[in-house]
Amino acid sequence: MGASVAFLGLGTMGSPMAGHLARAGHSVTVYNRTRSRADAWLTEHAGRAAATPAEAAEGAELVFACVGNDADVRSVTLGEDGAFEGLGPGALFVDHTTASARLARELDAAARERGAHFLDAPVSGGQSGAERGILTVMVGGEAEAFERARPLIGSYARMIKRLGPAGSGQLAKMVNQICIAGVLEGLAEGLHFAAKAGLDAREVVEVISQGAAQSWQMDNRHATMLQGRYDFGFAVEWMRKDLGLALDEARSNGARAPVAALVDQLYAEVEALGGARWDTSSLLARLEALDRD
């Protein structure tokens, strides 16, 4: 039988994720700060909309959230009319937002005080992965709570793994973003080099993508990069937010992340070109802009 669940945040990721839960037969109550998005979601899916996060959480067995940053998470959880006010004993809050590990531990403690449970569960896979139900989910929290949430998360994910106690999911997402940042800069430099060397970059990619240089970014972004198309995908400003979290954590734990720090600054230059909302593959646009200067 379906569970009674709430979903907070109906952006490009949250809306399709909540939709998968509804299609899986769960009773879904949605909340979004801009009510029109909740109303639009209800035109496509069965469920109801709540006026506040607290109202959405009342009576829910599991409450999911996917919002923007630490401040947004605090607002929908601990703020006035926040979801934690409506969490009943035994309820489980699952945060899919990419946020700080520090906040995850704080919310875990706050949930325990209320007799509830908490999982930090940031995702990877972008809007396309959310729509297709093939996200990767990195989870931190209690093993029992994880097993309880796993079947529901499985409605929109193909890879779900618990990596340790509260905060572990966020830390794993930081690793993910550090790795992506380095790969994207390498791909941008490689395509730029190919053009400067007089090579057909598409033909080069056709060859090297069959060897050790292959990556998801190469397979899925090289063509649009060569076309100069960046009006889609994961925005530069959000990547900078994520890298900021990773670099802040690195300063705390002593990890060295010179490439991540460099790429963060390169993205700042992309923002200066007007590319705050461009896809993260727009690092190539920065190199091409330098050529024009």
Provide an overview of this structure.
With 293 residues, this protein is of the alpha/beta class. It folds into two domains: 4-165, Rossmann fold (3-Layer(aba) Sandwich), CATH 3.40.50.720; 171-292, N-(1-d-carboxylethyl)-l-norvaline Dehydrogenase, domain 2 (Orthogonal Bundle), CATH 1.10.1040. It contains 13 helices and nine strands. It has helices at residues 14-23, 35-42, 53-57, 70-77, 101-113, 126-132, 143-153, 168-196, 201-208, 216-227, 236-253, 258-272, 283-292, and strands spanning 4-8, 27-31, 48-49, 62-65, 92-95, 117-120, 123-124, 135-141, 157-162. Strands 1, 2, 3, 4, 5, 6, 7, 8 and 9 form a nine-stranded mixed beta sheet that branches. Helix 7 (143-153) links the parallel strand 8 and strand 9. Helix 8 (168-196) crosses helix 10 and helix 8 (168-196) packs parallel to helix 13 (283-292). The longest helix is centred in the middle third of the chain and has 29 residues, at 168-196. The termini are far apart. The mean pLDDT is 98.
